[in-house]
Amino acid sequence: MSLLKEKLQEKIAIERPRTEKLLKEYGNVKVDEVTIGQIIGGMRDIKSLVTDISYLDPYEGIRFRGLTIPEVLEKLPKVPGAEMPYVEGFYYFLLTGDLPTENEVNAIHEEFNSRKQVPDYVFKIIKSMPIDSHPMTMFATAIMSMQKDSIFAKKYHEGVKKTDYWQYYFEDALNLLAKLPEIAAFIYRLKYRNGDIIPPDPNLDFGGNFAHMMGIAKPYDDISRLYFILHSDHESGNVSAHTGHLVASALSDMYYAISAMLNGLAGPLHGLANEEVLRWLHGVYAQLGGKIPTEEEMKKFVNDTLDAGKVIPGFGHAVLRKTDPRYMAQREFCLKHLPDDPLFKYVDLLFKVVPDILLARGKAKNPWPNVDAQSGVIQWYYGVKEYDFYTVLFGIGRSLGVTANIVWARALGYPIERPKSLTTKMLEDIAFGKK
Ligand code: CMX
């Protein structure tokens, strides 16, 4: 058994009794009440999911396994000569809750290396798609196409114990994650670099190898590491994480679940917002002939967008009530590496003007920027100017968190999800006291 799997097995043995005790002895204890506003309003804030992998405090932002973003970036083992931690070590941390040693990081690197060969049929399938297909469609399709190789699906049909399911989801998770950088870089080079594909380098780490296959020099390796870590997990209720969790709760395997979660991520109110931000910024840029707008000019663009009934992409959040620390981590990177970049200046100006405008309009509950407001600018600066690719990068990162959550969901024996619906008439009866 691999080192990571062994470690996970130990952790699962500790965690299972906690869940079992809660369920058996405290199953009837009330946690929350649900209002009609929440039922009609997208189940906002209803406390109905469990995860120990990350927790999102509305005012503090995300903590991964108890650590803030700056703590994660500081404490996790770093690639020699790099500013950012190994993605491999971060995955170990997400799965087990323990900070890995160098040895443990190397062991996962080897695990990924031994599983990263992408079957040739995947490339053929991607190539057979219309070249103007959205990269997210290509990415999700590529993942779907590998479902036939799911170890869980095979074992389930052979007949395995429920308490062992997690082991096969784990195998599928590693097999899938190891292949994502190459599949994503293949899509990028096929679509935007005339199919000039760069083969992987087994000596490089997850982020470094991705940068290499994208054909982009340093510090793009660190950007990739940072990007995958920042986008990995945002507790369980966001569309992508929840979709992955829901689909896997039916015992659909990891390939079905991750491709489904990517389809959720591809919506403009969720992961696709990073693409929308750049599209919006370039609209402004083009109208101003590349000049940096004054605050007043920027306010006008923002107001025009809102008056046209559109949202300002990259601002607002369903849970957060302050500036997203994932935005701040990327802003710090920009201040260090590209402080004079005109697009960064645009984004910084937006940070200055948008919150007051959204507050004054009185609709958005959170006027502050989220992760997507800043991420595309960095990609653009380092040469990834095809902004419809940005959500694929988000998708690689999010796969780390969602696969980890799914492995744990099976380990703790969470059942198939099945919330209850009511009719509008039933809600009216409850509202008007006729129940
Ligand atoms: N621009 C304009 N209006 C906004 C807004 C924004 N950035 N953010 C929220 N609002 C509006 C909502 O559209 C809603 O309007 P209606 O009442 O007319 O429907 C109202 O304010 C209340 O919304 P809310 O409760 O504050 O926000 P929600 O939880 O419903 O939605 C989100 C959250 C992220 C979808 C929303 O803020 C939004 O559309 N933002 C822009 C898109 C974006 O950046 N998405 C990425 C989020 C991060 C991620 O998942 O990647």
From TrEMBL:
Alphabetical UniProt keywords: Acyltransferase, Transferase
Biological-process GO terms, alphabetical: carbohydrate metabolic process; tricarboxylic acid cycle
Domain of life: Bacteria
EC number: 2.3.3.16
Pfam families: Citrate_synt (PF00285)
SUPFAM superfamilies noted in UniProt: Citrate synthase
One Gene Ontology term of the molecular function aspect: citrate synthase activity
Class of this enzyme: transferase
Pathway: Carbohydrate metabolism; tricarboxylic acid cycle; isocitrate from oxaloacetate: step 1/2
NCBIfam families (alphabetical): PRK09569.1
Protein family membership: Belongs to the citrate synthase family.
The protein, known as: citrate synthase (unknown stereospecificity)
